[in-house]
Amino acid sequence: MNPVSSSPLFKQAALVAGEWLARSASGATFQVCDPFDGKTIATLPDLGLEETSRAIDAAARVQPEWAKRTAKERAGVLKRWFDLVIANADDLATILTAEQGKPLGEAKSEIISNAAYLEWFAEEAKRIEGEIIPGAHPSQRILVLKQPIGVCAAITPWNFPNGMITRKVGPALAAGCTVVLKPSELTPLSALALAALAEEAGVPKCAFSVITTTDAKSFGLEVTKNPTVAKITFTGSTPVGRWLMREGADTIKRFSLELGGNAPFIVFDDADLDAASDGALVSKFRNAGQTCVCANRIYVQQGVVEAFTEKLLSRVSTLKLGRGTEAGVTMGPLIDGRAVAKMEAHLADATAKGAKILSGGRRSSLGPTLFEPTVLSGVTQDMIVTREETFAPLAPIIAFRDEADVIAMANASEFGLAAYFYARDMRRIFNVAEALQSGMVGVNNGALANEMAPFGGIKQSGLGREGSHHGIEGYLELKYVALGGL
């Protein structure tokens, strides 16, 4: 039996306003396919405006009652959801790998590490604290309350179909909000599995709906124009983020946006080159390079560029391509043919302008969406790969002269999500960390995300933060109460 379809968490129905719908009002369906070979895994209802509106209305009906529950009660529900995710991590990882392609071990790591956001925000629910401020008159006091913003719409991408949901739905429910979610049509099965566990944990009916649809624009228009939706949280491309903000302007939507990245990864001449090459391998090639915070531009100081390149090539040679469920596989397929075409376009542009392929550089014979991990030397700032997010296993190495030189190159981008650098000198560490125009900076560290840290970017990389105690603030409104006659 297919290991995915045998799981009780495998759903071929959407959760809309408390009901599991196997059929859309229009009768339309779409297929979810394995990115490794294109075979159909599941058929889901292709929902439309009717179902989206129904989910929003239902979320609005139950939100006041959910908000009235004590913080401890809401925390208990989230903690049960966390426990269920951990208990079902193997099934969730199998589903994730089937629809997204990443290796099974990497998928399970995503499940467990991102379940921690549910646990974290279960605890933060009990720490939503207001203020009492001395008034302007002896008989007055100023009371500041924090209250849930209301109905939230969430739009999540395909690259981390489990993690992007727990980061958004966790704080929303903890704050007393309700959520209507649209996962990527490429990877909706993880969202449905999480929703089934949320239902089992005690999340109230209608408080969390999952809309499966291929019509992202119609969903976006409905949630931006519908006055019932108070907030939109979105992870995806910068152009789509801009569009959502424009469309949501008339109804003054609140936004949390985690958008595109173009992360510089800098190796200074005083760096531990073994640690730097280990960090580059993780940052660049995790999830086949399909991460918003992955190293997109690798800058190496001239004096150590040859030594670093040799170490990186040695590590890249250990990567094993293949189907994510196969033993020993460390890098799976790209999500689809468009991703492969973009990789090839960036590679062709770089080589046409003088870059040299040191490893990889071609599709794998193992499958149409598998691309060999590729390292380039001789890369310059006029190549597309330094300006656009490749989202694929392409590591371009760019030599630089000094600190001022590399900071100027690193900051020459409209994006400001993540940046990394390796160095030992403490003066350099503080100067560079402060000079890089990025919402997150990894120093001698190739991995950034965890539930305790405020994840997010600046410039064209977005608004707001996910994780940490800051992560719940985007789901709360401040209310000032003037107390008189005291």
Automatic annotation (TrEMBL):
Record Pfam families: Aldedh
InterPro entries for this protein: Ald_DH/histidinol_DH, Ald_DH_C, Ald_DH_CS_CYS, Ald_DH_CS_GLU, Ald_DH_N, Aldehyde_DH_dom, Aldehyde_DH_Superfamily, Succ_semiAld_DH
Superkingdom in the source lineage: Bacteria
Keyword Oxidoreductase recorded: yes
Sorted UniProt keywords: Oxidoreductase
Positions annotated as active site in the UniProt record: 258
Ranges of residues in domain Aldehyde dehydrogenase: 25-481
NCBIfam families found in the cross-reference section: SSADH (TIGR01780)
Similarity comment: Belongs to the aldehyde dehydrogenase family.
PANTHER family named in the record: SUCCINATE-SEMIALDEHYDE DEHYDROGENASE, MITOCHONDRIAL
Protein name stated in the entry: NAD-dependent succinate-semialdehyde dehydrogenase
Species whose genome carries this gene: Mesorhizobium liriopis
